[in-house]
Amino acid sequence: MTYSLPELSYDYQALEPHISARIMELHHSKHHQAYVDGANNALKGLAEARETGVFANVNRLEKDLAFHLGGHVNHSIFWTNLHPDGGGSPEGEVAAAIGEFFGSFEAFQAHFTAASMGIQGSGWGVLSWDPVGAQLIIQQLFDQQGNTAQGTIPLLQLDMWEHAFYLDYVNVKADYVKAFWNIVNWENVGQRFEAARTSAAATLLIS
Fold first, then answer.
1. Among 25, 30, 42, 101, which residue carries the largest CB count within 10 Å?
2. Hey, which residues does 123 pair with through a beta bridge?
3. Domain 20-81 maps to which CATH number in 3.30.70.20, 3.40.50.720, 1.10.287.990, 1.10.3720.10?
């Protein structure tokens, strides 16, 4: 098994009342686990194709890998972006960068909220570092793997799939997004920001 379900650093009920324990349990142990299993199965199928020399299913397997691995990566980031003692506004380098690239934290928050709310169907709102332009950007990630620029590095992600909020908020997505701001782990976002700006991968893209 190449991929495995990561453990959370907090209990399922720790994010209440913003996200219920029931949603967290289902989201983590069922939905995320399904992406882990799907990615491993796709890798297994591709390995079998190489061993047999039969590549008739390669297109389906590659799509399966992209979708399920995307789901695994996105959720792995999402869990660390949340914290029971989160919320408020960022400090330090992240705060300075948000002010530089979005004008103010309030403008960033409004933009991120609008982008997340504007997703048609399933997807994610994402704050990313663009190493080519050396700037923060907000992106709409469709499903688990579509519509974002190659090489951008996610720092903050908001799951806008219905499984992330429906039991708590039904179809009132605005209340879910509003609640999200109360549990954002800005320390984690800051760590991701620092790593993204100094990563070897980012350097290769612009060298």
1. 42
2. 142
3. 1.10.287.990
* CB atoms near residue 2 (< 10 Å): 9
Say if domain 92-206 classifies as CATH 3.55.40.20: yes
> What is the secondary structure of 128-157 as a DSSP string?
EEETTTTEEEEEEEETTTBSS-TT-EEEEE
Residue whose tokens read 């949340």: 82
Pairing of the two strands 123-130 and 153-159: antiparallel
Tens of each residue's pLDDT in the chain, 207 residues: 799 999 999 999 999 999 999 999 999 999 999 999 999 999 999 999 999 999 999 999 999 999 999 999 999 999 999 999 999 999 999 999 999 999 999 999 999 999 999 999 999 999 999 999 999 999 999 999 999 999 999 999 999 999 999 999 999 999 999 999 999 999 999 999 999 998 866 666 655
Q: Compute the residue count for the chain.
A: 207
Tell me the pTM: 0.94
Crossing angle for the helix pair 186-198 and 58-81, nearest 10 degrees?
130
